[in-house]
Amino acid sequence: MSTVAHPLADELPVAARAEILSGQTSLGIELGSTRIKLCLVGADPSRVLAVGAHEWENEFVDRVWTYSLENVWTGIQTAFADLVAAVERDHGVRPATFGAIGVSAMMHGYLPFDAAGEQLVPFRTWRNTTTGAASAELSELFGVNIPLRWSIAHLHQAVLDNESHVTRIASVTTLAGYVHRRLTGRNVLGVGDASGMFPIDSATATYDADLVAKYAHADLIGLLPEVLVAGQPAGELTAEGAALLDPTGALQPGAVFAPPEGDAGTGMVATNSVAPRTGNVSAGTSIFAMVVLERPLASAHHELDLVTTPAGDTVAMVHCNNGASELAAWAGMFGSFAAASGNAVDNDAVFDVLFREALDGEADAGGLLAYNHLAGEPIAGLVEGRPLVVRTPDSRLTLGNFMRAQLYGVFGTLALGMRVLAGESVALDRMFAHGGMFRTAGVAQRFLSGALDAPVSVAETASEGGAWGMAVLAAFVREDVGADAASGAPRSLDVYLRDTVFSGASFETVEPDPVDVAGFAAYLDRYNAGLAVERVAVDTLALKGTTP
Questions:
Q1: Any idea which GO molecular function terms this record carries (predicted)?
Q2: Pair 21, 43: CB distance under 8 Å
Q3: I want to staple 369 with a disulfide (CB 3.0 to 4.6 A). Which of 79, 128, 390, 507 is the partner?
Q4: Is 441 exposed, middle or buried (0-12, 13-18, 19+ CB in 10 A)?
Q5: CA distances from 223 to 151, 179, 479 (A)
Q6: Range of the domain at 257
């Protein structure tokens, strides 16, 4: 993949220092499922100045997938210190301020607080699938699909279960909304993140008033955050917030904030796919596809969520709770084998070798099946996860087939949901992909193209992911794009991305290989039939410490 040189390449070090010292920068903070990442961009938001990161992982406590809020702040502070060290190393200065900041995080889930701001129950993440009764009841009441992971489903399930904390709830928010509130004092959300809490009316870019009125169990407007769209200022960094980010005291308050967004929204921004007929696939602990609609769907489908872009346009989302975690677990085991044999290699090299072996596998993975379900998967009809590798006596167990089955398995449930979208005759001109598994060029991207039977593009910024997308949204606020020079009308997020951020971007596009398309289709048919085995495994193989 070629790199586009900046026209002022020789001047970048000096220019970058000046931008950092004067606060002409934008900082994106993203709390992903396995990593908290910070990305700093300069006056040109396509130019990354530094990144910082901290690895973390969800916990399964009392049969609930969760992250502690203590670990949220420990992780953010560690990642911020890592970013500052990178800035000092690469640019010779320490940032004391930023022009703008934005926070993004995993969408959905349940974070309720009382009037004093105290957390009432541990964070229930998007990965929990214990809200089936609430989801079904709300979907029937509203006439639209309310997925298990949405915040309103978690809230209503707590109501149905008569949980004692319900009467004390003063506010409910998402992880991004919580972090934003602690840093700025404002209880707001970007419209994309809000659309994973409660259905949004795209005409008003806020919660659907008719559906709010149908909910009789709580004053939702009093509980849910205020909704803002991309480009609107969402508060400023307070002194208390600055101390939270940087306990050393060097960071000064005052930076303007973008509306906090979900990882789906930042993924759309990072792949320049916020316009109708564009879409993207984000692969991490979860995997999901987002397709911006040009017309409403004909009917509701439990496989499809209706959310929005950060600008408020309607998006059909195919969300799968399980992405690349099981693939990573197998790669870790192969890495351990290499180390035990006296030939230790780093993680990136392990993935590179295994991915390239997958290219030598048979188009249908030789009859092997790999199920990546660590958690429940609504699209697949699974209330809990049981990762499995399944083969028949006539299948061909080779390393290439095994790894191709594992990669196909990451895309399996997603492909089932995309079949539903195709049945709605939704038009799609471009599909972009981002996430760590696309760093090995030409492998996961090729298999995804075969799974979707569509061209798949990966940008050079794909590995920076949502943290960079959030930094771009922060820059969209900071630069005060204001009025279009010709018409005087406000410039849209789509125009800003096309004209300012991606005007010189380089993409690598892979066209679907007919052999891969046919091979994946055969794999998916077996995969779909084999889900019956998964359901039996859930029923018969109890989790440790429980009984079936």
A1: kinase activity
A2: no
A3: 390
A4: middle
A5: 11, 17, 32
A6: 11-269
Q: Is 269:473 a contact under the CB 8 Å cutoff?
A: yes
Tell me how crowded residue 115 is: count the other CB atoms within 10 A of its CB: 9
Tell me: the pLDDT tens digits for 156-188?
999 999 999 999 999 999 999 999 999 999 999
Tokens 């989790």, located at residue: 543
pLDDT of residue 12: 52
Q: Tell me the CATH number at 101.
A: 3.30.420.40
pLDDT at site 282:
87
Establish if 229 belongs to a structural domain: yes
Q: What was the pLDDT predicted at 444?
A: 95
- What are the backbone dihedrals phi and psi of residue 313, each rounded to the nearest 5 degrees, phi first? -80, 145
Reading the block at residue 499, the tokens are 């004209």
**Inside any domain, residue 193:** yes
Residue 474 in contact with residue 257, Cβ under 8 Å? yes
- 408 is written with which tokens? 């196909």
d(CA 269, CA 169): 33
Residue 469 lies in a domain: no
Give the separation between CA 4 and CA 59, rounded to whole angstroms.
41
Q: Report the distance separating Cα 319 and Cα 33, nearest Å.
A: 14
Q: How far apart are CA 395 and CA 74, in angstroms?
A: 47
pLDDT of 485: 42
Assessment of whether the complete model's pTM goes beyond 0.70: yes
Where on the phi/psi map is residue 111: left (φ > 0), alpha (ψ -120 to 50), or beta?
beta
Q: What is the pLDDT of residue 460?
A: 66
Name the domain count of the chain.
1
What pLDDT, on a 0 to 100 scale, did the predictor assign at position 7?
40
- Cα first-last separation, the chain: 50
Task: Show the 3-state SS of 237-251.
Answer: CCHHHHHHHCCCCCC
CA-CA distance, 189 to 181, in Å (whole number)? 9
H-state helical runs in 303-443: 325-340, 347-359, 399-423
Q: What is the CA radius of gyration of the chain?
A: 23
For position 183, what pLDDT does the model report?
A: 98
Query: From the first residue on, what is the mean pLDDT of each consecutive set of 10 residues in the chain (548 residues)?
Result: 36 80 96 94 94 94 92 98 96 95 96 97 92 96 94 98 97 98 98 97 95 95 96 97 97 97 92 92 89 92 93 94 94 97 94 96 98 93 94 97 98 95 88 85 93 88 76 89 46 91 88 97 97 95 67
